User: Which sequence fits this backbone?
């Protein structure tokens, strides 16, 4: 690995970490040296990067000496411990967990939307929740054009959003169904094969889940709209990859469907696929493996003169996690 920066990937053996390694390669990120870290049970294993086998190391302060950027794909509890430690070692941490997103001293960044926020970092930059990223991408151009007053968002979230255990649960249940055997959930609280689960994360006393509150709070922070009204519902669906969100937006000024398609189509990171008469609209099977979020079913709300409905799909392992984090790292190099 020739000229470039020394970069660490924490959680390198997980689904998001593996995708991060892939994105670093695809985007030709200028890596001089890559260091891989994971949980204790994975120490000593290897991950592949640019044709080389990289040994997975233990997370400890001395191991991060000389690291310039660390992309952290660990859980929230681990990230609370790891990120400050890695930052003290001299690296800037791009953290994908929920640990730092709502910390007022930590920027929460989607590079197409608020790249300026990265300049305020104090050693840690947070990457938003995967559902938030997919939903907020099409909100930004509409908000800039006509100021959004209210959002109603219902997400349909794939099992890979729950990591490798979620993927395995759906696969094993589908295979059991094909064999005529009982479908027993091992990771999710309920059967996921051929079913929908209208609850992701723990419930708060108000009846909303943690995932729903992430969508509210993170969207407000990214758009710098602390009073934006948002009504969320999050649903786990039997799809392996890609989150889909049905969105209704009310704006201060009317935006026609045609104008909305124009605004969405010009925004970086969005692709409009909206020809319903020809059966052309975004679906997870088409969007999987893409970095753009795809938008379709754009139409004016029949119940409100200044509201729109649309449907957006994004690969939550890529733009919803790994790609967004690597884009943040690219911003750090440019500042």
Assistant:
């Amino acid at each position: 690995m020739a000229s470039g920066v020394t970069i660490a990937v924490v959680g390198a053996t997980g689904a998001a970490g593996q995708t991060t390694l892939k994105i670093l390669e695809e985007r030709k990120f200028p890596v001089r040296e890559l260091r891989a870290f994971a949980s204790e049970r994975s120490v000593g294993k290897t991950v592949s990067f640019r044709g080389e086998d990289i040994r997975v190391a233990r997370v400890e302060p001395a191991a991060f000496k000389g690291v310039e950027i660390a992309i952290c794909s660990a859980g929230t509890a681990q990230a609370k411990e790891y990120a400050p430690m890695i930052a003290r070692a001299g690296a800037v941490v791009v953290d994908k967990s929920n640990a730092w997103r709502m910390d007022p001293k930590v920027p929460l960044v989607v590079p197409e939307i608020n790249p300026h926020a990265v300049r305020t970092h104090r050693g840690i930059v947070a990457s938003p929740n995967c559902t938030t990223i997919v939903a907020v991408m099409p909100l930004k151009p509409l908000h800039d054009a006509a100021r959004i007053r209210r959002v109603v968002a219902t997400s349909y979230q794939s099992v890979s959003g729950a990591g490798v255990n979620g993927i395995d649960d759906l696969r094993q249940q589908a295979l059991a169904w094909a064999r005529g055997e009982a479908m027993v959930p091992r990771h999710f609280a309920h059967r996921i094969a051929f079913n929908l689960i209208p609850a992701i994360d723990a419930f708060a006393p108000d009846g909303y889940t943690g995932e729903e509150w992430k969508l509210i709070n993170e969207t407000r922070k990214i758009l710098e709209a602390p009073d934006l009204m948002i009504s969320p519902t999050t649903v786990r669906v039997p799809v392996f990859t890609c989150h889909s969100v049905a969105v209704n937006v009310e704006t201060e000024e009317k935006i026609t469907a045609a104008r909305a398609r124009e605004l969405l189509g010009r925004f970086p990171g969005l692709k409009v696929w909206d020809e319903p008469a020809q059966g052309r609209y975004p679906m997870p099977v088409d969007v999987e493996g893409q970095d753009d979020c795809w938008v379709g079913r754009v139409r004016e709300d029949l119940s409100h003169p200044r509201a729109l409905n649309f449907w957006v799909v994004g690969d939550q392992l890529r733009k919803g996690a790994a790609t967004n984090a690597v884009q943040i790292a690219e911003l750090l190099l440019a500042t």
